[in-house]
Design brief:
single chain, 2 domains, about 160 residues, elongated
């Protein structure tokens, strides 16, 4: 592992521990040359998955694209970074468990929609409006009506109510 300070490729591991809620290892390292310390995160590199886009093209799976979509949908919403990371990990697990090297982008979008429906209704509608390519306000209204049918009735003060109604 190259030292981020001096560029030397010799370092020793001082501490190593699993990262909670992630399939990764956090390692604290010390450079053999400059003796400065730095942290690395290591994760298993699975066989490269391809995403089959709507137009039939194939691109490498990139978990950062899911993160970007979630962050845009959850912008200025009371959704923590930990929750977003949890959704990304959940979707990644579903892909590895249910698909063999290729996954349709439509399926990934549906996984994100399902997760957002449980987390925040406003974020869900934001994401769905782009993912499902809403053309006009009636598309929004139809989606909100469907969401209201699925959502259990809540009373003011219910603490476990989703943030979007």
């Amino acid at each position: 592992m190259k030292c981020p300070y001096c560029g030397d490729d010799q370092s020793r591991v001082i501490d190593s521990r699993p990262v909670e809620e992630e399939d990764a290892i956090r390692r604290r390292r010390e450079c053999a040359r400059c003796h400065r310390r730095f942290t690395t995160h290591e994760r298993v590199v699975a066989a490269p998955y391809k995403v089959i886009k709507r137009d039939g093209s194939r691109v490498p799976f990139d978990r950062d694209k899911i993160r970007f979509g979630l962050e845009k949908a959850c912008y200025k919403r009371p959704v923590s970074e930990e929750t977003i990371q949890g959704v990304i990990q959940q979707i990644e697990r579903q892909i590895y468990e249910n698909y063999d090297r290729e996954v349709p982008s439509v399926d990934i979008g549906e996984m994100v929609c399902e997760a957002l429906q449980e987390i925040d209704h406003v974020a869900y509608v934001r994401f769905a409006s782009v993912y499902r390519r809403f053309e006009d306000v009636t598309d929004f209204m139809d989606e909100v009506r469907q969401l209201k049918k699925k959502a259990p009735r809540r009373r003011p003060g219910d603490s476990d109510a989703p943030t979007g109604r």
